[in-house]
């Protein structure tokens, strides 16, 4: 054979060569440091034998090329039509500069939620632009940095109105021309809160009998009307008015704020975000200034840093649900940050003049269509509209729909005798010609020039006046602006993000590519099912694999965030109990459960009973049994997180489930920590009745700066009949606007499962546990490690206790900010235990990066020792001055440590050093002086002074 040396290296082995970070040789080194003979021996010491699954996950793995070929075959089974269905989803043009530089750019899609503002200034600015855009277009002064979809935003607005209205009525009015899927989600949310829904035409509103009302503007069938009289009547009765609206329409129409609306909601989808068979899309909410502290979700605000420079941060109720737990007003955790960023750049890209031109073109295309239909004798409604009309076709409805499909166009069936037509940005004269041919009209339509909007409904106010919306829109300038903002951030493409419970793992490029293919991106969620055969094949196979992984019998893919999954899971349990004629409303939640659990239980109308933890972090079994017995036949559910949020596999998990079942309750196992279970433990086999899975954690959907996410729920067979219904058909229990939630990103998790294969997924879990134990072992002498398991092992994350350093004046904040100087995002701070850091390295971090992180933490420990032993005061130390900026480096240096120690600590790269754009941000200042839209340019000058 000469020099021919056969190799067993497989360059196409995605799981072991691309996704899993440490090489086999590095794993051997790490196992020696951990003190385990083998990876399997470590797992045996970590995961209780009594809960290990018997069967292996054994489906074969695909290479990246094999995956893309499979995806291409499946994509070809979808039929992309021109969608004129409307109903809240529209064709749109994603500017290529935004597609490539935002949606397809890991600097944007791999970033974490901006809880550490110093390393998130770029996306915070983009989200502030989004808030400004929404506030301007809706005419209300305060907007949040996105919600999940229009339907859930409307449901949140209803709950917000109930909390803030002076009226003591128990009813909420829903105008009958709201989108049907929005009505379905509102009804789901209202039931457990005891809110009575009154539906009817706007003219039937009795303002004195409701605490609030929601109107669609323009309505789902196209109607536009001035809502000022109805809003005034509501205000006279102490009730609040919510307007569900459309941002593109508001470029021409009188804005809700000018009508006196209290809250506006809607979707930013048609601002350059593909339909994607339902999502993800950024929903918006804006409100009057007086209501801002009641607004759910995230609000980006303007503050200052330690040097007095302007800096952005999340304001007000950041992570409210983790702090206030069952007293929280909302369980919103994942937003749709990446999609909000896209929509904000769409507005920057086009500017107010461009948006107005698009809106005018869309409107005149709708008028052209309506005029041609009326000229041919058709009955068209309404008289005043923006982009949507309905045509009365009588018994010919099916024929017209079929004729349109023959032309490659989908229309909306309305009732039994009408069809709806919604034109959009992608509509042109050719589409109108084909559309009219479906109605048997062959003469060319004359382009309309006169609007069908009454003068008193035309917008008079300016919008998007801030300079950011008036940039030179040359692509070179746009590209550089996006690059400047991304350079201010720290995302996974630069460094490890070791956040406990958030699983910031590799989002492989091959997994991401198909979501921008038009065969997946251009489908309307309510398109005929036979046009989405590819989606249904992908979703069915993903469902089957998730059932095998979890031990559950059925899944709903509808919840479009982890918190939505929790909500859907508890609502499924509640529906099951009701079907048996049982009134159960007590939910047991250990303090070690995931942070959103108590808020979710409260939203489902359940009474939260908190169960104590034992000193080792386990659920206090005696306290659990006692509280389950006291609840008795009122026990609805127990919500547990496994392994616990303390990062431990508890030996008692089966007993907890058995106690719950003995009293007739159902067990909800939170899937936040599924990355420690896949291939080793099936929650459905250890006593779980329902779990949600954070696909944006364990199953490789990227966090996107705080969203998108997906939280599908798996259930045992007895709960399957009670899963969420189909939203557009008014299905009972619907929790999201689209039947499969954010369907397009399900493709990412499917691709992950296909390329990893069953063995690869199991190996990923093992290595995640190895990486966490390696960090715990290397840091054990320097930092106390909380909640080691019975055999001295942690699960997939470990909690570092920094509380002992507080007596020397060193805070957990100081350590987190000092990690920024080392080029790292901080771990999860002060949760689940105040004054600690929760570290989760995931399986996809290499040993070199983990070692760099350990080096950084050990160097920080030395700096803490310098403070503790009196060599430097905490206030003068690099810990307190962190993070250090380039400005710090070049200005006069009067600190008792060197510039090199401050700016180039042991864990930092020298050549590729990450420089935070601002110093430590003053949170309190930002809340005292709340500014949550783009400040005028003078403010920048004042900050600089």
UniProtKB/TrEMBL annotation:
Cofactor needs: pyridoxal 5'-phosphate
Alphabetized InterPro entries for the sequence: GcvP (IPR003437), GDC-P_C (IPR049316), GDC-P_N (IPR049315), GDC_P (IPR020581), PyrdxlP-dep_Trfase (IPR015424), PyrdxlP-dep_Trfase_major (IPR015421), PyrdxlP-dep_Trfase_small (IPR015422)
Assigned EC number: 1.4.4.2
GO molecular function annotation: glycine binding; glycine dehydrogenase (decarboxylating) activity; pyridoxal phosphate binding
Catalytic activity annotation: N(6)-[(R)-lipoyl]-L-lysyl-[glycine-cleavage complex H protein] + glycine + H(+) = N(6)-[(R)-S(8)-aminomethyldihydrolipoyl]-L-lysyl-[glycine-cleavage complex H protein] + CO2
Record key words, sorted: Oxidoreductase, Pyridoxal phosphate
One cellular component term from this protein's GO annotations in UniProt: cytosol
Family designation: Belongs to the GcvP family.
Subunit structure: The glycine cleavage system is composed of four proteins: P, T, L and H.
UniProt-listed PANTHER family: GLYCINE DEHYDROGENASE (DECARBOXYLATING), MITOCHONDRIAL, GLYCINE DEHYDROGENASE, DECARBOXYLATING
Function noted in UniProt: The glycine cleavage system catalyzes the degradation of glycine. The P protein binds the alpha-amino group of glycine through its pyridoxal phosphate cofactor; CO(2) is released and the remaining methylamine moiety is then transferred to the lipoamide cofactor of the H protein.
Name the record gives this protein: Glycine dehydrogenase (decarboxylating)
Lineage of source species: Bacteria, Pseudomonadati, Pseudomonadota, Alphaproteobacteria, Rhodobacterales
Gene encoding the protein: gcvP
């Amino acid at each position: 054979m000469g020099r021919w040396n056969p190799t067993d290296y497989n360059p196409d082995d995605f799981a072991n060569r691309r996704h899993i970070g440490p090489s086999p040789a590095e794993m051997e080194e790490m196992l020696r440091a951990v003190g385990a003979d083998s990876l399997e021996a470590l797992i045996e010491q970590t995961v209780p034998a009594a809960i290990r699954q018997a069967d292996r996950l054994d489906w074969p793995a695909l290479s990246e090329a094999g995956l893309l070929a499979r995806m291409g075959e499946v994509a070809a089974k979808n039929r992309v039509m021109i969608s004129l269905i409307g109903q809240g989803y529209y064709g749109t043009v994603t500017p290529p500069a935004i597609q490539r530089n935002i949606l397809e750019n890991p600097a944007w899609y791999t970033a974490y939620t901006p809880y550490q503002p110093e390393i998130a200034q770029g996306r915070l600015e983009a989200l502030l632009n989004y808030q400004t855009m929404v506030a301007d277009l809706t005419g209300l002064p305060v907007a949040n940095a996105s919600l999940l979809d229009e339907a859930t935003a409307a449901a949140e607005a209803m709950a917000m109105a109930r909390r803030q209205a002076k009226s003591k009525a128990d009813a909420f009015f829903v105008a009958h021309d709201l989108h049907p899927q929005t009505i379905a989600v509102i009804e789901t949310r209202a039931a457990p809160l005891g809110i009575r829904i009154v539906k009817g035409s706007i003219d039937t509103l009795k303002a004195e009998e409701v605490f609030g009302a929601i109107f669609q503007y323009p309505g789902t069938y196209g109607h536009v009307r001035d809502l000022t009289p109805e809003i005034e009547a509501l205000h006279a009765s102490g009730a609040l008015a919510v307007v569900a609206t459309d941002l593109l329409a508001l470029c021409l129409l009188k804005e809700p704020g000018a009508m006196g609306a209290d809250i506006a909601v809607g979707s930013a989808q048609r601002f350059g975000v593909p339909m994607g068979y339902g999502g993800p899309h950024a929903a918006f909410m804006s409100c009057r200034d007086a209501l801002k502290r009641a607004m759910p979700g995230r609000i980006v605000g303007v503050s200052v840093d330690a040097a007095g420079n302007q800096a952005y941060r999340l304001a007000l109720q950041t992570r409210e649900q983790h702090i206030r737990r069952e007293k929280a007003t909302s369980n919103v955790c994942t937003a749709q940050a990446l999609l909000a960023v896209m929509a904000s750049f769409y507005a920057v890209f086009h500017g107010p003049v461009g948006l107005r031109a698009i809106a005018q073109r869309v409107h005149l295309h709708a008028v052209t269509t309506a005029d041609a239909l009326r000229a041919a004798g058709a009955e068209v409604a309404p008289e005043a509209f923006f982009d949507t009309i309905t045509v009365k076709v009588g018994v010919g409805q099916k024929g017209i729909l079929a004729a349109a499909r023959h032309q490659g166009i989908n229309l909306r069936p309305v009732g039994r005798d009408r069809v709806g037509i919604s034109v959009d940005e992608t509509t042109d004269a050719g589409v109108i010609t084909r559309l009219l041919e479906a109605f048997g009209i062959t003469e060319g339509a004359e382009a309309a020039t006169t609007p069908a909007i009454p003068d008193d409904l035309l917008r008079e106010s300016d919008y998007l006046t801030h300079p950011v919306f008036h940039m030179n829109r040359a692509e070179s300038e746009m590209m550089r602006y996006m690059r400047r903002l991304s350079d201010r951030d720290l995302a996974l493409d630069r460094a490890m993000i070791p956040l406990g419970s958030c699983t910031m793992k590799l989002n492989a490029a091959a997994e991401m590519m198909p979501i921008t293919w038009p065969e997946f991106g251009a489908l309307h969620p309510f398109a005929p099912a036979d046009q989405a055969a590819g989606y249904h094949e992908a979703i069915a196979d993903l469902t089957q694999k998730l059932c095998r992984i979890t031990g559950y019998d059925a899944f709903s893919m509808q919840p479009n965030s982890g918190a939505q999954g929790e909500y859907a899971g508890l609502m499924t349990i509640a529906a099951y109990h009701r079907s048996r004629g049982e009134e159960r409303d007590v939910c047991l939640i250990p303090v070690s459960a995931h942070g959103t659990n108590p808020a979710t239980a409260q939203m489902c109308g359940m009474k939260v009973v908190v169960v104590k933890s034992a000193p080792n972090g386990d659920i206090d079994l005696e306290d659990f049994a006692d509280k389950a017995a006291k609840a008795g036949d009122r026990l609805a559910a127990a919500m547990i997180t496994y392994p616990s949020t303390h990062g431990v596999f508890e030996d008692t998990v089966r007993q907890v489930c058995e106690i719950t079942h003995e009293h007739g309750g159902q067990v909800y196992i939170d899937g936040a920590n599924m990355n420690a279970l896949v291939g080793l433990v099936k929650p459905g086999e250890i006593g779980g009745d329902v779990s949600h899975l954070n696909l944006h954690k364990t199953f490789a959907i990227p966090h996107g700066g705080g969203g998108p996410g997906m939280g599908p729920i798996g259930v045992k067979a007895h709960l399957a009949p009670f899963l969420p219904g189909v939203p557009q058909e008014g299905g009972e229990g619907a929790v999201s606007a689209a039947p499969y939630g954010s369907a397009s990103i399900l493709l990412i998790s499917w691709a992950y499962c296909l390329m990893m294969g069953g063995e690869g997924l199991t190996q990923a879990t093992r290595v995640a546990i190895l990486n966490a134990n390696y960090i715990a072992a290397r840091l054990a002498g320097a930092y106390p490690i909380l909640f080691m398991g019975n055999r001295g092992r942690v699960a997939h994350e470990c909690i570092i206790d920094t509380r002992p350093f507080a007596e020397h004046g060193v805070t957990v904040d100081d350590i987190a900010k000092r990690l920024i100087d080392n080029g790292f995002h901080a771990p999860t701070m002060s949760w689940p235990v105040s004054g600690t850091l929760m570290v989760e390295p995931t399986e996809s971090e290499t040993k070199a990066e983990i070692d760099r992180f350990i080096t950084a933490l050990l160097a920080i420990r030395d700096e803490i020792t310098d403070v503790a032993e009196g060599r430097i005061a905490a206030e003068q130390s690099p810990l307190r001055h962190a993070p250090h900026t380039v400005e710090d480096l070049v200005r006069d240096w009067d600190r008792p440590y060197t510039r090199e120690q401050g700016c180039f600590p042991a864990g930092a790269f020298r050549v590729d050093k990450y420089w935070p754009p601002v110093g430590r941000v003053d949170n309190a200042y930002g809340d005292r002086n709340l500014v949550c839209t783009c400040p005028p340019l003078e403010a920048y000058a004042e900050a600089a002074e």
